[in-house]
Design goal:
The complex is a heterodimer of chains A (313) and B (235).
Chain A: E1 2-15, E2 18-31, E3 35-39, H1 46-53, E4 62-69, E5 72-73, H2 79-83, E6 90-93, H3 97-100, H4 107-112, H5 119-135, H6 141-144, H7 154-166, E7 172-176, H8 184-199, E8 204-209, H9 212-218, E9 221-226, E10 229-235, H10 236-241, H11 246-253, E11 298-300, E12 303-305, H12 308-312
Helix pairs in contact in A: 7-8
Chain B: E1 6-15, E2 18-28, E3 33-37, H1 44-51, E4 59-64, E5 67-68, H2 74-80, E6 84-87, H3 101-112, H4 117-130, H5 135-138, H6 147-159, E7 165-169, H7 177-194, E8 197-202, H8 205-211, E9 214-219, E10 222-228
Parallel strand pairs in B: 3-8, 3-9, 6-7, 7-8
Antiparallel strand pairs in B: 1-2, 1-4, 4-5, 9-10
Helix pairs in contact in B: 3-4, 3-6, 4-6, 6-7
The chains are: A alpha/beta (313), B alpha/beta (235).
């Protein structure tokens, strides 16, 4: 049963006289207990989707489509109704844990801030939070609460934001680039945390990342985004071990262990997208049709793919 | 044996009572990439900052072309400084946000080259081409550029001064996998064309093994071993 259903989501930002098309007609659904990953390079529209689900985008963003969660369209809810969902039923673990925490408040106070109500209720909430901190591999959480964010390492700050995001036991956790800038040890720790959240807490997660190793370890399904649209969607193991779309293949070849082969060229301008396939200028398989006709997303070997080359096969 | 571009002997750093590193020694020859591998907090960045003169070590010597820069007068060091450059980890904080990309790029030329306006613009365009920047990138402010585009501008700006040695501190840790490959390949291309040497600081051993000639391992505040890789492209 799908817990979150996104249909035809498009997001645009005005830029002077022009419009930046950040996300174009994205549709996918996340089933209960599933971890759904969105991968793609910077600027492909991944993070914008995460923010759009909770309506956290700037006021000038034009959002169209529907996002159904428990029978309600999140994009048309009243602000008061949305407040009952934000942080409680759907929680966001933001990119850059250092920037997400207030540098002048002690960690304990920031955790306590999450809980509403009187002193006793806050105290009860903190008890639960401390237990959660212990479970998420944070040693000596009582001492940690007396420190400021700058006194923690990158990995610890990330665990703390994970605790804050999970303290209301949300039904969906959106994690945006949780391993960006972390060293290998902290990255391995992040994989353990997400596996724990997935298996022990049985949470549904939307993981937005460019870390292909994290995606492979944690995700059940993966959508690959390029220039604001999904180009491939399938089981994580299939997408990352036998990729079909030329862009996904390029991403995998660019990993150091696979040869550090860069994708030629750069992503297209989002103000004036190229005719035909958005990837055709960088694609080694590009043919005549690719520069003329924009490919539709189609079913292919059990997954979804947007490529003329594969549909011709 | 060619004279090293940079030689570090017995470098030590202590902050109050805590010793960050001690007895750190290595050398880098022309056209070589030396990787510096260590965990977060091991002192890799501090070593890099000592080399470019942003930190003063508590012991040891840093020889550039055989002269110890730690004993140099400020005036003398300022003359040498354009030849030793640094790429910082966070691309978004490396450029002036109030200047357009092209102005950022030609700023070092304005300060150090003595070129006139036309020649300055021409050299700026050459550098942009060398680093794969398109004209539309140059007209934007840093806030409107991606991490990869900013790192290209940083590289173009650094190459403007024809440095002998670049300390690259985690230049790709904040970039995604495809852009990471582009920037590292660009650095290799610049090395082939100009003979510049790199000290590449990273916590990603896979990346270092792919692009470095040798890797120095920093553990418990000292260099425990230096491994020959022979995979990088040496001039």
């Amino acid at each position: 049963m799908s817990l979150l259903e996104i249909k035809d989501l498009s997001i645009e930002f005005p830029a002077g006289e022009n419009t930046v098309k950040a996300v174009s007609h994205v549709s996918f659904e996340i089933r209960e207990g599933e971890t759904f990953g969105i991968i793609g390079e910077s600027g492909s529209g991944k993070s914008v989707i995460g923010l759009a689900l909770l309506r956290l985008l700037p006021a000038n963003a034009k959002v169209s489509g529907t996002v159904f969660f428990q029978g309600q369209d999140l994009l048309s809810l009243k602000p008061s109704e949305l407040r009952k969902i934000r942080g409680k039923k759907i929680s966001l673990m933001p990119q850059n844990p250092a920037g997400a925490l207030n540098p002048v408040l002690k960690n304990g106070l920031q955790m306590e801030d999450v809980f509403e109500g009187n002193r006793a209720e806050k105290k009860e909430g903190m008890k639960k939070a401390l237990k959660l901190m212990k479970q998420l591999f944070l040693r000596n959480p009582e001492k940690l609460c007396t420190l400021y964010p700058h006194q923690l390492s990158g990995g610890m700050r990330q665990r703390l934001t994970a605790c804050i995001s999970l303290s209301f036991e949300p039904e969906i956790l959106i994690a945006d680039e949780p391993t960006k800038g972390l060293d290998p040890e902290a990255k391995a720790g992040a994989v353990d945390i997400f596996n724990k959240i997935k298996t022990e807490y049985e949470k549904t997660m939307l993981l937005i990342t460019h870390d292909l190793d994290l995606a492979l370890e944690v995700c059940d399904q993966i959508a690959v985004m390029y220039a604001g649209e999904i180009v491939e969607l399938d089981l994580a193991s299939k997408v990352l071990s036998t990729p079909l779309h030329p862009y996904t293949k390029g991403l995998i070849r660019a990993q150091p262990r696979n040869g550090l082969v860069p994708l030629s060229g750069q992503s297209p301008s989002r103000i004036k997208l190229p005719e035909g396939c958005f990837f055709h200028e960088r694609c080694r398989y590009s043919g005549f049709e690719c520069s003329r006709k924009h490919p539709e997303i189609k079913n292919y070997k059990g997954g979804l793919i947007r490529c003329h080359f594969l549909s011709l096969k | 044996m060619p004279l090293p571009v940079l030689e570090v002997n017995g470098l030590a750093m202590r902050f109050r009572t805590s010793e960050v590193f001690k007895n750190v020694s290595f050398s880098v020859t022309r056209g070589e990439t030396l990787g510096l591998f260590g965990k977060s907090g091991s002192g890799k960045t501090t070593i890099g900052r000592c080399i470019v003169g942003l930190e003063k070590p508590t012991g040891g010597e840093i020889l550039v072309q055989g002269v110890d820069i730690l004993k140099m007068e400020k005036k003398e060091f300022r003359k040498l400084r354009p030849k030793i450059q640094m790429i910082f980890q966070h691309p978004e904080t490396s450029l002036d946000p109030r200047m357009k990309a092209f102005e950022n790029l030609i700023e070092p030329l304005k300060l150090h080259s003595g070129l006139k306006r036309d020649a300055l613009m021409k050299r700026g365009e050459e550098l942009a081409e060398l680093t794969g920047l398109r004209p539309e990138h140059l007209a934007r402010y840093p806030g409107h550029l991606s991490g990869g585009e900013i790192q290209r501008i940083v590289l173009a700006r650094i190459m403007a001064l024809s440095p002998d040695f670049i300390v690259a501190d985690e230049p790709t840790s904040m970039l995604d996998v495809s852009v990471q490959a582009q920037i590292l390949r660009l650095m290799q291309k610049l090395q082939r064309e100009t003979g510049v040497s790199y000290l590449l600081i990273s916590h990603d051993l896979e990346v270092l093994k792919k692009v470095c000639h040798r890797i120095a391992y920093l553990e418990n505040g000292t260099i425990t071993s230096i491994e020959n890789i022979n995979r990088g492209i040496k001039i």
